[in-house]
Amino acid sequence: MASIRFDGVTKRYKDGTLAVDDLRLDIPDGEFLILVGPSGCGKTTALRMLAGLEEISEGEIVLGDRVINDVEPGDRDVAMIFQNYALFPHMTVYDNMAFPLRMRRVAKKEVAEGVRAAAQLLGLGELLRRRPNQLSGGQRQRVAMGRAIVRQPAAFLMDEPLSNLDAKLRTQMRGELARMHRRLGTTTLYVTHDQTEAMTLGSRVAVMRNGIVQQVGAPQELYRNPANAFVARFIGSPPMNVMRGALEDGRLRVTGQEDGAGVDVGGRWPGQTREVLVGIRPEDWRLGAEPAPGEALTLRGEVEVVEELGAETIVYFRHAAAAVDVAGEDDGIGETFAARSEGGGRLPAPGDRVAFHASASALHVFDAGTGEAVAAPLHAASPAA
Ligand SMILES: Nc1ncnc2c1ncn2[C@@H]1O[C@H](COP(=O)(O)OP(=O)(O)O)[C@@H](O)[C@H]1O
Ligand SMILES: [Mg+2]
């Protein structure tokens, strides 16, 4: 086992594409770290540089206590697991899993023991004589993991390993991966574009965009204190509602809000005057005729869609305040907001005009130009009396 460090790692492809830009990431021995971001943001490139499949343009990658920039892929002692399994179709499950050990000329008895242990861990014991085309997608992915496990590498590198599985199986495999990591404790760098996967699987998550890491933190830290509007919108589903507004010396004005006096933000952001983006998580809206004490912001919107999901209901509503294009990410939200409630009470119907209320403490504020969170982390601030 070993720690992994990216120290100012940059990748510029021959055609000039800057795929990874000054990546700095410290993954302690035994950690399961998730690198998450939209398609094309540089995740696979980062992983391939670590595996030795792609040259590093600048910076250093350190595995354990050695710089591995110039170490051959086969000598790096990392095992990569891909989305498309990459199994040998003509080999049995047993032979697929034994392959990396045989390549290393491991004694036959040890090969058998290694394969048996991995097969047991992954529930593949009954399938060792089958070929990949006789397996389901989930079983194939388990074999691919088994093949990585038998090598007992210093680190696992996983590139969207669950993307080819259906939703139910993906959830199940997430659980198995977590269990496997608890058992083996092998340092893992796991890449995905799926924020749900990132939130449920990683002890820490690094959010990447355009080759640049935006924020690294525990899932709840990213959710509660996003460093910028991109992280705020990327983490969480439905995404955070974002509208335009302005801070004017301690008061917050939201564009399109009916009360022209603006929101008393209770002593936060003192002395700040600037154009901002104001964010609210869907669960921080409350539906109701009138604001309750302490609720500072009210929007009256028209209900578009009501999704009853059992434990919770999501009400989508239109409001002119919605910021369509947040920090350059046109994610097709249009002018629709989402409000989440945990059932109970009378639900509105599409077409109804309804009031949505939020308290000042639920608001996230980002600079309208840079998208960076303004001033102190929101939830660390003590609410003013
Ligand atoms: N071999 C290559 N040559 C040039 N550009 C590439 C190459 N591989 C990937 N890219 C570009 O680098 C960027 C990052 O790609 P990639 O690492 O595959 O992102 P991700 O895995 O996050 O989807 C993208 O813009 C992609 O088009
Ligand atoms: Mg990729």
Automatic annotation (TrEMBL):
Q: A Pfam family name for this chain?
A: TOBE_2
Please give the name of this protein. ABC transporter ATP-binding protein
Known PANTHER family for this protein?
MALTODEXTRIN IMPORT ATP-BINDING PROTEIN MSMX, TREHALOSE IMPORT ATP-BINDING PROTEIN SUGC
- Keyword set for this entry? ATP-binding, Cell membrane, Membrane, Nucleotide-binding, Translocase, Transport
User: What organism does the record attribute this protein to?
Assistant: Conexibacter stalactiti
Q: Which residues are in the ABC transporter domain? A: 4-235
Entry keyword annotation includes Transport: yes
Q: Which CDD domains match?
A: ABC_MalK_N (cd03301)
Please tell me whether the keyword Heme is annotated for this protein: no
This entry's Gene Ontology molecular function terms read: ATP binding
Q: Name the lineage.
A: Bacteria, Bacillati, Actinomycetota, Thermoleophilia, Solirubrobacterales
Q: Which NCBIfam families match?
A: PRK11650.1
Question: Sorted alphabetically, which InterPro entries does this protein's record hold?
Answer: AAA+_ATPase, ABC_transporter-like_ATP-bd, ABC_transporter-like_CS, ABC_transpr_MalK-like, ABC_transpr_MalK/UgpC-like, Mo/tungstate-bd_C_term_dom, NA-bd_OB-fold, P-loop_NTPase
Q: Which domain of life is it from?
A: Bacteria
